[in-house]
Design goal:
This protein has 285 residues and is mainly α. The protein is built from 13 helices and 2 strands, in the order ααααααββααααααα. A two-stranded antiparallel ribbon has the order 1-2. A hairpin with a 5-residue loop joins strand 1 and strand 2. Helix 3 packs antiparallel against helix 7, helix 5 crosses helix 6 and helix 7 runs antiparallel to helix 8. The longest helix has 22 residues. The protein starts with 8 loop residues before the first helix and ends with a helix.
Length: 285
């Protein structure tokens, strides 16, 4: 009979961190389990998109940065206000977004196509009227383009800050090329395919953005919560890191200040958190 193997304290700590992270992103009450990488995914193993999307803390920082940017687009903001329960289920919304990214990045290409179809069907029902009377729809290719641009630039910026600062420029371009695949499946247009195109589109789309009172209120809720729903220390640190990485124009429009000296512990904590989770998953069983 094989000897009983009891993990040492280092391995036990690794396993604990891995379980905690997986619990955040998988709703056990719904039977969710981690997405298993498929040999028949949309993207090959060890490609830039799989490297970027595997970095847990960078993706969380990038996700918050992306949400703050997305709220600057009147149609994207109004769609959230009119059709989302984000105030009552922030964690659930983030979990669903994270799972969509995991499936489309690592899952079988047929499952990726299925979940894209589900999202497209949801988008087809998201429509309404802006405060100025203009009609909006979540199927508008340009609105979807802004949502995608905010996400792709945010995930990459956070990865460069907290994952791999030495990521080669050609791999950064490849990341945009790969992320364009899912964006186009969702109906977004135009979609950047490298860093230069992303920067140009960001500059061009600034004309579509508005620093409205509603956008600022949603940003404050995401960063500070309200009532009894207040972020813990870790989430506050991630929020500070997200604000720190925002383009200056976005911070101005949202009336946010770039974190100063008082935020150094939060930013250092985010970096330490990123390293700890990478360490845990590198040695997990």
């Amino acid at each position: 009979m094989a000897a009983l193997r009891i993990p040492g304290p280092t391995q036990a700590l690794r396993n604990l961190l891995v379980r905690q992270v997986r619990a955040v992103f998988n709703d056990r009450s719904k039977g969710e389990t981690p997405v298993v990488p498929s040999r028949h995914a949309l993207f090959e193993p060890d490609s830039p998109i799989r490297m970027v999307h595997a970095d847990v803390v960078a993706m969380m920082v990038g996700g918050m940065r992306a949400l703050l940017l997305q709220m600057l687009h009147p149609a994207a903001l109004q769609g959230v206000l009119d059709h989302s329960d984000f105030r009552e289920d922030v964690e659930g919304r983030l979990r669903r977004t994270a799972r969509f990214i995991a499936v489309t990045t690592y899952g079988h290409r047929d499952e990726a196509a299925r979940v894209v179809g589900v999202v497209n069907a949801i988008h087809s029902r998201v429509m309404g009227t802006l405060p100025d009377g203009t009609a909006y729809s979540a199927t508008d290719p340009r609105v979807l383009a802004w949502v995608h641009l905010a996400e792709a630039t945010s995930f990459l910026e956070a990865y460069l800050a907290y994952g791999n600062p030495a990521m080669p420029p050609e791999e950064q371009d490849r990341y945009f090329e790969q992320s364009a695949v899912v964006a186009e499946m969702l109906g977004a247009a135009p979609v950047p395919r490298d860093r230069a195109e992303a920067a140009a589109l960001m500059s061009e789309m600034r004309q579509d953005l508005r620093g409205s009172a509603s956008a600022r209120e949603v940003a404050a809720f995401l960063l500070e919560g309200e009532g009894a729903r207040r972020p813990g220390t870790a989430m506050r640190a991630l929020g500070a890191a997200a604000v720190d990485l925002l383009p200056p124009f976005a911070r101005t429009m949202l009336e946010l200040q770039r974190p100063g000296l008082s935020a150094i512990p939060a930013l250092a904590g985010t970096r330490a958190m990123a390293g700890a989770i990478r360490w845990a998953f590198a040695g997990s069983r």
